[in-house]
Amino acid sequence: MFERLREDIQSVFHRDPAARNAFEVLTCYPGMHAIWLHRFAHVLWRNGWKWLARVVSSFGRWMTGVEIHPGARIGRRFFIDHGMGIVIGETAEIGNDVTLYQGVTLGGTSWNAGKRHPTLEDGVVVGAGAKVLGPFT
């Protein structure tokens, strides 16, 4: 767990020149808070605690302005910069070393069950305000 935390903090330093120290990242980066809350919610979701996972996810949205469905699968070193308004849907899949900027939506285009949201492969950067919709890679 602490190794992942260190890895997350280092990913901020690699992608945000404004980051000054680990304490600042731990306390002042809502994108990181959203990711950490999502990881907890995702574990709950995978273990059948769907309602509690949604509660944790809702709390994360309220605290950070970032909405990540607890069913979304997110890789390592994921970085959300200026996260307000980000929405990540239930069947979205995000690879390692991905960066999202403010206002990004990874959304679905149907109400059918199954894969509805995009897959982002390793190293993708999605710019501010982008709307990536549908079940494609």
From TrEMBL:
<dbReference type="GO" id="GO:0006535">
    <property type="term" value="P:cysteine biosynthetic process from serine"/>
</dbReference>
<dbReference type="InterPro" id="IPR005881">
    <property type="entry name" value="Ser_O-AcTrfase"/>
</dbReference>
<keyword id="KW-0012">Acyltransferase</keyword>
<keyword id="KW-0028">Amino-acid biosynthesis</keyword>
<dbReference type="GO" id="GO:0009001">
    <property type="term" value="F:serine O-acetyltransferase activity"/>
</dbReference>
<protein>
    <submittedName>
        <fullName>Serine O-acetyltransferase</fullName>
    </submittedName>
</protein>
<dbReference type="GO" id="GO:0005737">
    <property type="term" value="C:cytoplasm"/>
</dbReference>
<dbReference type="InterPro" id="IPR045304">
    <property type="entry name" value="LbH_SAT"/>
</dbReference>
<keyword id="KW-0808">Transferase</keyword>
<dbReference type="InterPro" id="IPR011004">
    <property type="entry name" value="Trimer_LpxA-like_sf"/>
</dbReference>
<dbReference type="InterPro" id="IPR053376">
    <property type="entry name" value="Serine_acetyltransferase"/>
</dbReference>
<dbReference type="InterPro" id="IPR042122">
    <property type="entry name" value="Ser_AcTrfase_N_sf"/>
</dbReference>
